[in-house]
Amino acid sequence: MPPRPVIGVPTQTLQAIDGIPEGLPHSWVMNHRYFVALSSVGALPWMTPLLEDMETLRAMYEHLDGVFIAGGVDLCPSSYGAEAHELCGRTDPARDRVELQFTRWAMQEGKPVFGICRGMQVINVAAGGSLHQDCAEFLPNSIKHDYFPTAGFARDHLAHEVDVVPGTRLHGIYGVEEIRVNSMHHQGICQLAEDLVPSAVASDGLVEALE
Asked: Which residues of 53-69 are buried (b: 16+ CB within 10 A; e: fewer)?
């Protein structure tokens, strides 16, 4: 039996999450669903702490076969050279630092990296792209993208359709040119990094998947 691939999953700072009471010990956490999903397809998920020691982080990275970047709070606009707008939400600078570094290492060395929601935005920023800090405010003719559970929407609510770009890896997987998706984000891709291509696009032109 071949060895199971080890997939690094950077954590997030507990205190960066909305609704966490003050006074709890500083902690690093991550949604258990990602670990269940990764293990169910044969991977060995490795929960990665947000250490400042780059030498230790690099040693951890060396043990990985791939990197998984999960969803979460907004990226700090400083990570793509912008000033924070008042509509930018909560951020997690420690998480940004680790995820961006792991993603850049992976892209430079040809190691697989997969991002969901915020994770896709991390990949774009790591490759040199930028973000809309709020789609409704900055994306012309934006459709609604922020179907958050806090507003009463189910996490699996299929909010809108996206066009799957022919010839992309995503198109090869699904074999269709249109698919309906859930949508729980208020930020989105502004400038797509030069080395990336869109693989799914919403009706307002927002890139919803890239590779």
From this structure: eeeebeebbeebeebbb
Q: Of 110, 17, 121, whose CA–CA distance to 66 is shortest? A: 110
Beta partners for residue 201, in sequence order? 163, 207
Q: What is the pLDDT of residue 146?
A: 97
Average pLDDT over residues 112-141: 98
Same domain, 84 and 100: yes
Instruction: Say how far apart CA 100 and CA 79 lie, in whole Å.
Output: 9
In a domain, 155, yes or no: yes
Residue 190 within a domain: no
E-strand spans in 14-135? 28-29, 44-48, 66-69, 113-115, 131-132
Contact between residue 197 and residue 110 where contact means Cβ atoms under 8 Å apart: no
- If one counts the domains in the chain, the total is 2
Query: Are 161 and 181 a contacting pair, CB within 8 Å?
Result: yes
Give me the CATH number covering residue 96: 3.40.50.880
pLDDT at residue number 20: 87
Q: How confident is the model at residue 1 (pLDDT cuts 50, 70, 90)?
A: confident
| Cβ-contact 168, 199 below 8 angstroms | yes
Tell me how long the chain is: 211
